[in-house]
Amino acid sequence: MGCTYNIQKRLLQHNNKETPSTASGVPWKLIWKVQKSDRMSAELLERKLKNLSRERKIRFMKKYNEGVQDLEFLQSIE
Fold it and tell me: Which residues pair with 68 in a beta bridge?
């Protein structure tokens, strides 16, 4: 989870292990994204989502699935 202006570049950085906190999870796959009207709103949502358990994040993405990149993959996650 994070805020960026260039999501493809950010995903590439994660998969190239340029971000130490995500290096062990390679390869990363984008399954959900949302665009907010301003950075403050994006950061507020990011903080809220980072405090959710994995299960609650999955439920959130399934509920607000207009930003889902791969709905079939998301539905397969329990």
Answer: 32
Q: Tokens representing 29? A: 């796959």
For the full predicted model, state whether its pTM sits above 0.90: no
- Bridge partners, 32 (sequence order): 68
The tokens for 17 are: 């292990």
Report the length, in residues, of the chain: 78
Quote the distance between the C-alpha of residue 59 and its chain's center.
13
pLDDT in tens, 20-40: 999 999 999 888 888 899 999
73 exposure class (CB count in 10 Å sphere: 0-12, 13-18, 19+): exposed
Q: Contact 34/70 with Cβ under 8 angstroms?
A: no
Cβ neighbours, 10 Å, residue 29: 10
AA letter at 76: S
